[in-house]
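Appendix B.2, paired examples.
Example (i):
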Amino acid sequence: MKRLLSSLSRSLFTLTLCGVLALGLGGCVSTGLPVAASSPWQPVDIHTKSNPLDLAFSDSRHGFLVGSNRLILETSDGGASWQERALELPAEENFRLISIDFSGDEGWIAGQPGLLLHSTDAGQSWSRLFLDTKLPGEPYLITAQGRNRAELATNVGAIYRTDDGGTSWQAEVSDAAGAVRDLRRGPDGQYVSVSSLGNFFATWNPGEAVWTPHQRVSSQRVQAMGFQPGGELWMVTRGAQLRFNPDAANPEDWSKPVIPITNGFGYLDLAWDPSGQLWTGGGSGTLLVSADGGKSWQKDPVGAQQPTNFSRIAFSPDGKGFVLGERGSLLRWVG
């Protein structure tokens, strides 16, 4: 009898939840998802409790991972194992290494507060470049663009370019976007930023003098944004909602919200794997995959076992993939 009542209570709760969501969203959202039969991810022990924040490779096997508390690790086997490296930085400064990129042997690391490192020998040695104290904001995203060339964006949307190895920098925009919580660069040099409060976003294309602001599409604050494989935008908002922009030329055009699961945890990133499947990750080991463009979802069994919040999902053009989480959590794509 107790078992029957328990089943009836769960059914009534689900019906009530679907009714509430139907009023607000036009449909029922599941509170549970099936677990995938297998996982393409493999946990990698990187022997740290610092937060990995970014990684990049100088060739198919050699690369670096950077993160909080001056974290820098090196791999020579495509990311299957990592070894700690040391940087010649003042011991009293606790740098947050937030962005790294390579173009062949040319490497760059951006960190906070006010840190920029440059390498010309695939990261075997790094030299510190001292930035102008009048630089708007803190370094946030670095993009290697070839011999002695790079693009630097700050956490207020200032964008600078160097053609001489960082000796001098030229401003690409005349006015910054304002404090940002997220900022991404597209494959053609375009940028999208999310304001610090998540109440609007802004876009910038090469050659434009200023950023173009856009109001958020719903009452839900924007958490993160980025670029789809075709150059269109994607958006993650509070309330665990995903939205997709169908036209790269019109950043005001958005799909209805996609809500994979209402488990109380939000999503922090979104990416497409080499086979075209869609991945999203977030709080408490939430790692979900969709093989049909977001219509249906499954939980990843390996991700669910990780006691972490997944903050970033990264795939490289040569097929490598990683999921970065808090407290030293790292998953490697094994297909």
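Example (ii):
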Amino acid sequence: MSIIVFGSINIDLVATAPRLPTAGETLLGHDFFQAPGGKGANQAVAIAKLGIPTEIIGRVGKKSFSEELINYLQAAGVKTDNVFVDETASSGVAIINVDDAGENQIVVIPGANERVNLEDVERLSQLLPGKKALLLQLEIPISSVIAAAKEAKKAGVKVILDPAPAQKELPEELYPLVDILTPNEVEAAQLVGFPVNGEDSAKKAAEVLLQKGVKCAVVKLGAKGVYCSTAAESFFTPAFSVKTVDTTAAGDAFNGGLAAAISQGFSLRKAIVWGSAAGALAATKSGAQPSLPDRETFDKFLQ
């Protein structure tokens, strides 16, 4: 039932302000805080906090934040034996602006994440047998993502790819290696080459992604809901209505909830509901990992 995550580990430096600044503008903000982040780490924590055994493979830098980042992961219940401390790099950093409506702008400096390579994939390959799923994102080199997906296929492990940060295109060889692809509207639009902003366009995007070779396309439409399509079925799931504070880790929470449900053998429809619930809860709090719900909060919300 356990899950493995292969991806980025960052420290998030977060500034809150009434609105997001325009180019060249200096704004007075409300607040500043730092919190653990990185799409890989966020997804690992999201799953672990829902009570599913979870391990992460990735890198932090010796020069900065490494101890804090590993401690944060361990405190959330994530196994970190295979987080490599890179002596020659700084840890990844994300600089995040959040406005009063909960919208954000993010600049990521990859640091040690950029050095994730085939040595890390080799460590991953030893751990894959018997795992329920491998979660991947795009804050580490794409060559390592592809190699990891290939190893998962060999081991018969389901591959869940969050194609974020958004990319103009992915290597064609990656799509057939992916069991579940989970783009948001921006990421889906980049991958299919046309705007995605509602159920109709999400349906068209999902069709394109299935043609490219993914087994299941899950297009996240934020407050509008989620469109999901496979060769066997297609359906739309409305979003949960919540008061949005900060959407920073909502997408990671979605993938965590989705993976947690799949690890327990639930149906795809139920897994999408779990993802939607986890994402909605994450959007009600500030920060990346601090916003991710624990199992008790999650179960109460679902009821």
